[in-house]
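This section describes the prediction task in plain terms. A model, or a person checking by hand, is given the sequence of a single protein chain and must write out its three-dimensional structure as a string of tokens. No templates, partner chains or ligands are provided. The sample shown here is typical of the held-out split.
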Amino acid sequence: MFHDLESPITLYVHIGTGKTGSTTIQSSLLENDLILQQEGVKYLGLMLDKGHSHQFDWQVPGGFSLFMQLEQQEKNNQLVKVLTDECRYWSEHGCNKLVWSHEAIFNSPDAFSPALQALEQLGVKVVPIVYIRNHISWAFSAYKQWGIKHKTYDGPIMTFEEWCNSKSLSFMPYLLPWAERMGGTLKVRNFDKCSSLMDDFNSILELSTKLPESRKNTTPSDSVLSLWASFNNQFDEQVGPGAFYQTLGRLGITEHNNIKGVDYKSCLANEDNVNQLAEMYAHDLEAINYFMDLQGQPLLEHTTKVPTSDLKVEDSMAVILTMIVALENQVAALRKHIEHLEQRDKK
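The expected answer:
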């Protein structure tokens, strides 16, 4: 279908991993869409929601779970249909490079690779891109995201050690299938050695225009995270990150009569945790470095630096006070608005 085109089509699929600047890449691509199109590049979004073809209900930024609910054959059929339509449309409109980015694709090779392989058979060059960081640095960041901010488990807040022991941090069970199925074009990048993530990504796309780095999803300060941990610790069930904001917005936190405190500092990683993780994932690191070396990338190294927190009670109190002042200002503005409406109705 696409074999005879004068300008061959390349589909770059940024597949992850999580906690390696994926949101930065996605935001930069989205914010510079017109610039990219001038260079013959079209960004298709998280779930192929920014392209030309909108045919299925999963083609929305949050549609990953909807897509994953489909039977495998239906996944293949729908993906191939959408991607084929996108390739045809954009090649006719001056874009011979397409970019799809979703960090959760990496963990689901069985769901996505068959459709990408089928696209290759149609004459599209498919280039999966994966950024990987060392297990320990990844765990530091991931724990704050999915151990504290978004409590993805039942029960009280887990410590760093408990959270790491509750799951596998290995990358190879996912990297190996991608390498076996798309090994000829798969690009494995050492996130730890990227002084500029977007510069590295731009080099893969071979862009002449340097896309600016749009920093997103930065980790909150320890003072805010300590409050987040205390808040989520009040619930036995899983808690999404939005609950913290919503409850504070309603001032509902004052209704808790039995606050369950959590020692935030004791939850964080210590030297023993770091040494244990380094030993536990040494073989996984060695296997990943085989691919790094094969592609001329710097080798991954496990960090030995233990993150420290200089959190003080005063810092948390300052955050709470700032929230109270902001909420009081909002309440005052609402009262003024209500008074204005009441006076208007009396006229």
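For orientation: The radius of gyration is 24 Å.
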